[in-house]
Design goal:
Helix content: 25-40%
Largest sheet: 5 strands, parallel
Number of helices: 6
Number of domains: 2
Radius of gyration: 19 Å
CATH superfamily of the largest domain: Tetrapyrrole methylase, N-terminal domain
Strand content: 15-25%
Low-confidence stretches: none
Length: 233
C-alpha cells in the first residue's frame, strides 16, 4: 500500500453504511489516525470498529479541540499534520477516520491540505453524508426535478435569509444555536415543512417529524431538513 494519508469517510453513524473501499483501506493501512475531542470522544473510531477488526491496529490519536478560536485551531491542525507526516516519512500509510464525508465540513480537510502542501500524497475516500442518511431515515427525497439543494452550517451567527431560498435547505451543525434556528422557523411558519434527526444511525438517534417537540440544545450531530414551502392555490 502506498505511503499516503487517506481521509476516510465512515458515514454518519450506522457502520453498515461504510463503503467497501473504506473498509479495505482501513484493513490495509499501517496505522489508523483518529480525531479526539476535549471529551475524549472518538466517534468515527467507534463506528469503524463495528465493521473492521481494529484490535491489532496501531492507533494515532490526534487532539481536535471543539473551538472556533482560529489560532487554537490552526495550532492543533498543524501539530496533527506534523504527526501524520512523521509517519509518511517512514514510508507508512495512514488512514484518518472522519464522520460522514471528508469533503463536507470535515476537520480532516485542514490536515489534508497541509500534507499536500508539504509535498506528500493525500487522498479523499468518500463516505455517506449525514444529510443523505437523514433523508433516508425520514423516508423523504432531498430534492426533485429542478429543485436546488442548499447545505448550510446553521450554527454560525448570521442572517437567516437562506430560509427564503427556493428548494430544500439542509441545516447542519445547529447544536448550540438550535433554539434560535427553531424560533426563526416558527416565526416564518416553516415548522410544518421541517424535520430533524439527531445522531442519525447512532444508538442515541432521535427523530423529530415536528421540531416543536425538540427541546433545549440539539446535539452537534443534528441535521435539519427544511422543504420548500408549498403554495396552496
Amino acid at each position: 500500500m502506498n505511503a499516503a494519508l487517506y481521509g476516510i469517510g465512515v458515514g454518519p453513524g450506522d457502520f453498515e453504511l461504510m463503503t467497501l473501499k473504506a473498509i479495505r483501506i482501513i484493513k490495509e493501512a499501517d496505522l489508523i489516525a483518529v480525531p479526539r475531542t476535549d471529551e475524549k470522544e472518538m466517534t468515527a473510531w467507534n463506528i469503524a470498529k463495528q465493521a473492521v477488526d481494529l484490535s491489532q491496529k496501531e492507533i494515532l490519536e490526534l487532539y481536535m479541540p471543539m473551538t472556533r478560536d482560529a489560532q487554537i485551531l490552526a495550532q492543533s491542525h498543524q501539530k496533527a499534520a506534523e504527526l501524520i507526516m512523521d509517519q509518511l516519512k517512514q514510508n507508512r500509510s495512514v488512514a484518518f477516520l472522519t464522520l460522514g464525508d471528508p469533503s463536507i465540513y470535515s476537520t480532516y480537510i485542514y490536515l489534508h491540505n497541509r500534507v499536500l502542501d508539504a509535498g506528500y500524497d493525500a487522498r479523499l475516500i468518500p463516505g455517506v453524508p449525514s444529510f443523505c442518511a437523514v433523508a433516508a431515515r425520514l423516508n423523504t427525497p432531498l430534492c426533485e426535478g429542478a429543485q436546488p439543494l442548499h447545505i448550510i452550517p446553521a450554527s454560525y451567527e448570521g442572517s437567516f435569509d437562506y430560509l427564503s431560498w427556493g428548494g430544500t435547505k439542509v441545516l447542519m451543525k445547529s447544536g448550540k444555536e438550535f433554539s434560535n434556528v427553531k424560533e426563526e422557523l416558527l416565526s416564518r411558519d416553516l415548522v410544518e415543512d421541517t424535520q430533524m434527526v439527531e445522531c442519525c444511525g447512532m444508538p442515541t438517534e432521535r427523530v423529530y417529524h415536528d421540531i416543536r417537540n425538540a427541546k433545549g440544545k440539539a446535539s452537534y450531530f443534528s441535521t435539519i431538513i427544511v422543504k420548500e414551502k408549498e403554495i396552496t392555490k
